[in-house]
Structure formats: C-alpha cells, structure tokens
Design brief:
Radius of gyration: 22 Å
Structural class: alpha/beta
Order of helices and strands: HEEEHEEHEEEEEHEHEHEHEHHEH
Length: about 325
C-alpha cells in the first residue's frame, strides 16, 4: 500500500467521527495504462471534500459530479471508466491514457460499525496486523479475514459476487543519516508514495534537509529501528559513509522484517563492511547477505540524484518481486 492510502483512511475516520457520510472508493482492476494500482483508494465526504486518488484526475472529477447529482446512494456499487458501460450500467468516461478502470464504491454512514471498520483498516495500514477486506457486492456487507500477504491485491469471488482486497502496511522508507544522497532519495520515495523517515542524531544536518512531506527524527537510526519502527513493508537505507551511523543501522535492521536493507559504498568499502559486521557486529553470514551493498542497481551512478535513483529503483525491484536478471 502507499502512504497516500493510509492518509485516506485517517481522514475517513476523522470525518466519520464528525458525523459525515462517506464514499470509500477502491480500484478493483486496471486494464492497459493506469496511474494507480488495484487497491488504491479515494474517500469523499458528503460535502465534496476528498482525499486520495483513483487516477490522474479525470476519474475523480467525474465521480464528484455524479455524487453531487445524487448517484451512489446504494450501500455498494461498481463502475467502469473507459471501455464502455460499467457493471452498474453507468456510461463510462473515456480515459486519456486509453486504459480501463473498475472501481468499487461503498457508502459508509457515520455509525459505530463504520468507525470500527475504519479503525481496523488503519491498524492494518500502520503495520499492526495483516488482513484482507471482504465486501459483498450485492448487500455491501463487509468483514475482515486473515490473509497471508502474498498474491494479487484484489481477488474477485464470482461465485459469491464479492471482492477481497488485501491490506498491507503502507510502504515506509527509513533513511539512516542526512546527506545529499539522503535528500534526493527522500524526494524520490515521497513521490512514489512511501512514508519517509530520516533519522540523524545531528540536528543541524536534519535542519539542512530541505524535503517537504517527510518526517525528521533527531535520533540514532539504530535506536529508532530497534524501537520497532520496521514492518514487512519497510525499506531501510544507510546513506552517510559514516560507519558509526551506517553500521549500527545495519546491525539493527537485519533483526527486523524489513523487505529491503541497503547501505551506500563502493565494492571495496562494502567488502570491508561485510567483514567488519561479522567480526565486530556479530552478524552471521546469512544476515550479511540480506544487505544490499553496494546499494542500488548498477547504473554507473555518480551524482547524489543518480545514486538515489539507483537505490529507489532497486527497492521497487525487490518490492515487486523482480530478479535482477529479469529487468
């Protein structure tokens, strides 16, 4: 899940607590080109305010216009954008990208059951549990089921006319240390939908990090990582060239379920670090092999932005389950 999806549920929960009726929209399937993946969310309250995204903007505009005309009064409905009429018989909007988008729309009243449902959703997106959200497409009834966390994000149960939407923690990037590479990496990750946290005990270094929309923590990265900050959708990168920051971060990160752990350095520096982490850090060979070092794809990167691009590309590769030789 993207950090944006967590913001959707946070805002939805706040609106329900204010007594607002909501429409929670979820991308069920995409065909052809599409800017948002299945599982992406948009929430709209009854006065038209909205958070999240289903596309590049054209879908949201059309949805808001239909909602203002009184559409989507049922507890649940589906519609298709692009490719003719959707399942609800609603005439579709042509998408400039040429793709097709199927959307689930759930009308949620400000009731205790809705609040409880959204609280479970938020707990899942913050990494507290792994679940799938199941919605009956006829009645709108919804519940949660245990989920292994692998496979397609959205699964259609045609026999029971229901959909099951996998919920995983919002993608998180923890950056150990502030540096020019850290700034570029934080900026890339933020635009990719990651929740970005930069840790550095040097307050002056954090103050110089001019990247909007990220969290800064004046703390040792290793201490923050050891506090339980990593879940299975977390990537940890060390980008300072300072062993006092980078090595300690790696020692703590390998003890977590983080899906990607990487540290910047040349081949020679990385070999020396591997030996040092085993000798002084007490890491096993298997633990050292979890580390991506040198970090990133071998793009011949030289500048901070190029190094950050290589690192984020490698993180996405691992997140998508792609082998290097499959690129």
């Amino acid at each position: 899940m993207q950090h944006l999806d967590r913001q959707v549920i946070e805002r939805a929960l706040a609106w329900v607590r204010e007594g607002q009726t909501l429409w929670l929209c979820t991308v069920l399937a995409t065909f052809g080109s599409s800017p948002r993946a299945p599982g992406s969310m948009l929430v709209v309250c009854d006065d038209g305010r909205h958070v999240g995204s289903l596309s590049g903007g054209c879908v949201e505009e059309d949805f808001l216009e239909r909602l203002a005309r009184g559409a989507f009064a049922a507890p649940v409905s589906t519609l298709r954008y692009g490719g003719g009429k959707g399942e609800g018989g609603v005439e579709s909007v042509h998408l400039p990208c040429g793709g097709v988008l199927d959307v689930l729309v759930g009308r949620l009243r400000p009731e205790p059951d809705t609040r409880d449902h959204l609280e479970v959703l938020l707990a899942t997106l913050t990494g507290e549990r792994a679940l799938a959200r199941r919605v009956d497409l006829n009645s709108g009834a919804r519940n949660f089921v245990e989920d292994a966390g692998v496979g397609e994000r959205v699964v259609r149960d045609t026999a029971r006319d229901a959909v099951q939407i996998r919920l995983t923690p919002a993608a998180r990037l923890i950056i150990a240390g502030s540096s020019p590479v850290s700034a570029a990496c934080a900026d890339f990750a933020r635009t990719l939908g990651f929740e970005v946290i930069v840790c550095d005990p040097r307050e002056e270094a954090l103050a110089a990090l001019d990247v909007p929309g990220i969290e800064r923590r004046a703390d040792l990265p290793s201490r923050f990582i050891a506090s339980g900050a990593c879940h299975a959708a977390t990537a940890v990168v060390a980008l300072t060239h300072d062993p006092r920051i980078d090595d300690l971060a790696m020692i703590e990160a390998v003890r977590t379920p983080a899906f990607y752990i990487g540290v910047m350095g040349s081949q020679r520096t990385s070999a020396a670090r591997a030996e040092r982490l085993q000798r002084s850090g007490g890491l096993s060979r298997d633990e050292v092999e979890r580390l991506h070092m040198p970090i990133g794809l071998a793009l011949g990167s030289k500048t901070p932005a190029e190094i950050a691009l290589a690192a984020m590309a490698d993180i996405l590769r691992v997140q998508r389950g792609k082998a290097r030789d499959a690129l």
